[in-house]
Please model this.
Amino acid sequence: MDPGFLSRHWNELPHLDRLRQMGECKLLRTVMPPQSPVAWSTFITGLDPGGHGIFDFVHRRPEALAPYSSMGEAVGPAWKIPLGPYVLPLSSGKIETFRQGTPFWDILARRGVPVTILRMPMDFPAAPGHDEELSGMGTPDLRGTNGVYSFYTDAPGVTAHDTAGGRFVPIRWEGRHATLRLAGPANPLRRDGAETSVAIEVDLDPAAGAARFEVQGRSFVLAEGQWSGWIHARFPLLAGLGGPAGMFRIFAKRLRDGFQLYVSPVNLDPEDPAMPIANPPELARELARAAGAFYTQGMPQDTAALRDGVFTLADYLAQSREVSREHLRLLRYAVEHARGGFLFFHFYGTDQDSHMLWGRHEAELLDTYRMVDDAVGWIMQRAPEAHLIVMSDHGFTSFERAVNVNRWLVEHGFMALRDPAAEAGEGFQNVDWAHTRAYAVGLNGIYVNLQGREREGTVSPQEAEAVMTAIRNGLKALRDPENGAAVVEEVYRTSSIYRDANPRYAPDLLVGYRPPYRASWETVLGGTPPDVVAANDDAWIGDHCIDPKFVPGVLLSNWRSTLADPTIADLPVTILREFGASAPPQMAGRALYGPKSGEEHVRQSQRKAESGAVGTN
Model:
């Protein structure tokens, strides 16, 4: 949620406007870098990135020099017995989160304060305890990815291929019939890890612009342009043996004059989730049965389908709005059944829609904000005595120009390529590490190729400072060749701004770009396209992964705070204080509100059994 956008539209957002008139609306200072996993980890733990260990969506392992997701990973069973093409696991696997620190709600729960956390970013897997939790951003689809859609078409010339967020599948008809294979997770019982799958049977009637579909004995008909509801299926591991449960939605994009079918990422089924998305485990089932099936995927708005040209803008908005409606039903159910104490709900639509609509589709983005406004108005009416906070972890700005950081490092002698005429490719495939002194991974980070840390380190600890100074000075002097504008606001020495940053894993430098610049998509995974600065021709037109001074978040509340410059790190300390709990010493934030007794607030919440906080991006 962006403060500038709010200020332009108070008249169209009456409930948020009333909230600020009852209390306040202030800028909320975010973290460096202002990325969602980084900022929400600070909100959860009260620690800066040096303490919680999350610096980007993408980190790298120094011994492998390979990128990986900062949000966690699945670890398979340690012991297996081979049986022909299959393996028999003797121990269970687990899911590890890389975020360090204690969530503030664990402290509340130990004090007996009822806590309900719905779709908190960076809260996967849901940990056992006394809370009610439904995991949010970071929750994978059934295949273990952030979400991969499938697109089936009979268009001539289309070959099977994958994009960053999708899979294109050409189909062949047998008359008017086709069998589509929808990929599921890798089969843990097979030595080759072959994908599981389910069959989608299609019988097409192009004259009528309709098709009949059948999935595991259940059939339905869709007209061209129509969406299905949730389709539940199991992905079998062995013949006759049930497998993990998943669910997906189908969009019959074209059924006349060609065939185009979109199938959503296979979401974990909340009725029978294959991964720990809720605590207690039955909470997901309770929510699904009470409020209807919902996207469990952590980043459910399918921005990838719009970026790949599979969705039109109208298609994307239809899908995004359905995601939001499903999740807002969860919020209403939670408020109606509130147990008192603390309630958190995260609305992701403002973030994802801003990425795709910013600066060009103001009216459509305003409709997304109106969904938040309506929800806030309903909560204010339903729970008039609750202390209500609406906050966001960052704001937004335009993303018009992409910076290829590794290309800049090559041109300035910090990175070397084995074949200078070729690009490095994702994952540094063409990098000459013996002659490389620094490299970039992720949206804001730069790493020194340090001896004793990196697999093929070339820079001694004594030389590292000079290398970082030269990179900082060079990037601050970088000008866009198209218009002469400065590209970088500041380059931060990570150890200077975050004292506890683990030097083995933290980036050595963090780049704070100026609007409308941002690191290129190729930079994120180690690529080196030919130009240092290039036009952003992607459908992803808004962003926030720049210097934090340009993208503060929002703090709205029906109480007035005592601090003129609140930060996201102040919120966990504030919440603990409101319930009479002391923040642990490692939390550096300040309490936003005055000496109102936390015990009084506890008694009030217990009397009314209603208290809430709504978080947005």
